[in-house]
Amino acid sequence: MEVTLQIAKAPSEGKQVQPEDVFMTCALTMVSLDPITKKPTNIAPLTLTSAAERALYARGQENYKSKKALKSSHILQKAPDAE
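^ thats the sequence. predicted structure below, dont judge the formating
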C-alpha cells in the first residue's frame, strides 16, 4: 500500500491549506509481512466507493509502475549501455 503524506502549516480555522503553506509531500510504501516467515503476504483489497478514491488508487498504480520501471533500469540491476 502506498501512503502519501503532505506536511503543511496549519491553516486558520475553517480555511483550506494553500499551496504556499505546504512544506513537503512524500510517499512511502507499506508491505504486510507474515509474522512467521517474514515474507510479504496479501491482505484484503481496498473497497473503492467514490470517484476520488478511484482516482487516488489509479495514481498509486501509476507510481508503482514507474518505480518498477526505474528499478529495472538501475545501474545495480543492469550494466550501463548507450542510454
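The longest strand covers residues 22-29.
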